[in-house]
C-alpha cells in the first residue's frame, strides 16, 4: 500500500501495512489518522503535519522529521531508533507534550533542548537518549529502561519515574523537585552526592 501521490491531505484514514521505507514524503497533512504495522524506516518526512494521529506497531527508525509538526500524536509498540526529534517544528509555547510513547523502543534518539512538558514515555526502552537542556516537567517515565540516557540542565520537576530503571540523574545538575522515584532505584540519585550507603 502506498500514499496517493496527488493527495496532500488525509482525514480520518486508517493505513495498514503501508511501506514507505527510504522514501521522501513532503507537504502532507494527516488529521485523525491511524497507522498500523507501517514501515517508515529511513524515510525522510519534510513539512508534514500530524494531528490527533496514532502509530501502532510501526517502524520509524532513523526516520527524518525535518520541520514536521505534531499535535496530540501517540506512538504505541513502535520502533523509533535513532530519531533526531529536534529537527521537527515544535510550537513556541507548549502546555502539554504533542507526542506520547508507550511500549516503544527509542534508543539513540535526541530530545536535546526541547520543551515537552507532560511527555509520556511509559514502558519504553530508551537507551542512550539525549534529554539534556530540555523541559520534561510532569512527564511520565514509568516502567521505562533509561540506560545511558543523558540528563543535564533538564527540568524533571514533578516527573514520574515510578518503576523506571537504570537512569543516571545528577540532582545537582537537574531540576527534580516534586519528581517521584521508586525507593530502590532512587538510591541512584545519591551517587552524585558522594554519599556512601552501608547495609
Write the layout of secondary structure elements.
Elements (H helix, E strand, L loop, with lengths): L8 E3 L2 E3 L7 E3 L2 E3 L2 E3 L7 E3 L2 E3 L2 E3 L7 E3 L2 E3 L1 E4 L22 E4 L17 E3 L37 E2 L18 E2 L1 H4 L13
Parallel strand pairs: 1-4, 2-5, 3-6, 4-7, 5-8, 6-9, 7-10, 8-11, 11-12, 12-13, 14-15
List keywords for this structure.
single chain, 199 residues, mainly beta, Pectate Lyase C-like, 2 domains, 6-stranded parallel beta sheet, 4-stranded parallel beta sheet, 1 helix, 2% helix, elongated
Offer a concise description of the structure:
With 199 residues, the chain is an all-beta fold.
Task: Give a structural overview.
The chain is 2% helix and 23% strand. With 199 residues, it is mainly β. It has two domains: 69 residues, Pectate Lyase C-like, CATH 2.160.20.80; 109 residues, Pectate Lyase C-like. The radius of gyration is 18 Å and the shape is elongated.
Question: How many strand units?
Answer: 15
Q: CATH H-level name of the largest domain... which superfamily? A: E3 ubiquitin-protein ligase SopA
Largest sheet: 6 strands, parallel
Helix content: under 10%
Class by SSE composition:
mainly beta
Quaternary structure type: single chain
The number of domains is 2
Global morphology:
elongated
CATH topology of the largest domain, anyone?
Pectate Lyase C-like
N- to C-terminal distance: 60 Å
Give the class-level CATH name of the largest domain.
Answer: Mainly Beta
Please tell me the overall pLDDT: 94
Output the helix-strand order: EEEEEEEEEEEEEEEH
**What is the count of helical runs?**
1
Task: Examine the secondary-structure arrangement and name the CATH architecture of the largest domain.
Answer: 3 Solenoid
Radius of gyration from the CA trace? 18 Å
Amino acid at each position: 500500500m502506498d500514499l496517493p501521490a496527488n493527495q496532500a491531505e488525509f482525514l480520518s484514514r486508517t493505513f495498514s501495512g503501508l511501506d514507505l521505507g527510504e522514501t521522501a514524503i513532503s507537504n502532507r497533512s494527516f488529521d485523525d489518522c491511524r497507522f498500523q504495522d507501517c514501515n517508515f524506516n529511513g524515510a525522510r518526512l519534510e513539512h508534514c503535519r500530524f494531528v490527533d494521529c496514532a502509530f501502532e506497531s510501526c517502524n520509524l527508525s532513523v526516520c527524518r522529521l525535518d520541520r514536521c509538526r505534531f499535535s496530540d500524536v501517540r506512538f504505541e509498540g513502535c520502533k523509533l531508533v535513532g530519531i533526531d526529534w529536534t529537527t521537527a517544528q515544535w510550537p513556541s509555547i507548549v502546555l502539554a507534550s504533542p507526542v506520547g510513547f508507550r511500549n516503544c523502543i527509542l534508543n539513540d534518539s535526541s530530545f536535546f533542548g526541547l520543551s515537552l512538558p507532560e511527555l509520556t514515555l511509559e514502558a519504553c526502552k530508551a537507551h542512550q537518549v539525549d534529554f539534556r537542556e530540555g523541559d520534561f516537567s510532569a512527564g511520565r517515565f514509568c516502567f521505562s529502561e533509561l540506560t545511558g540516557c543523558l540528563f543535564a540542565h533538564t527540568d524533571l520537576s514533578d516527573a514520574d519515574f515510578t518503576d523506571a530503571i537504570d537512569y543516571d540523574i545528577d540532582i545537582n545538575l537537574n531540576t527534580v523537585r516534586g519528581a517521584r522515584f521508586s525507593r530502590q532505584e532512587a538510591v541512584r540519585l545519591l551517587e552524585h552526592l558522594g554519599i556512601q550507603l552501608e547495609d
